[in-house]
Specification:
This protein is an alpha/beta fold and 124 residues long. It has one domain: Response regulator (Rossmann fold). Helices cover 36% and strands 22% of the residues. The protein starts with a strand and ends with a helix.
Length: 124
Amino acid sequence: MRYGVLLVDDDPSVRHTVSRILKSAHVNIKSVTSGRECLKELERGFKGLILMDIVMPEMDGWDTIKEIVDRGRYKDIIICMLTGKEEPDIKMDRLKEYVLDYIRKPFDTIKFVELVKEYLSYLK
């Protein structure tokens, strides 16, 4: 099975930049604009690393993770928050067992690619 990256972020510039960085590192990436689209990708069978923004309209990152857990869709995925927020908010407390890392934007590109590849290696 080939695992990939699913980027969940409502900001088009973040989706473009992260996609470009990971594609240039030969990482299979798909991006979606919302938590609802993320859930649809999981229903379609996505397996791999989810890079989840926190601040999104309608359904924020934490609510999306809660829904992933409630639907039992957390098998064969790793979730990392990818956010501009300095500190996790209180919602993380009840979901932290499902979140491997909290990556803050802006990030160091080289370290970011290394982290993504390392986390994908956990799934093999």
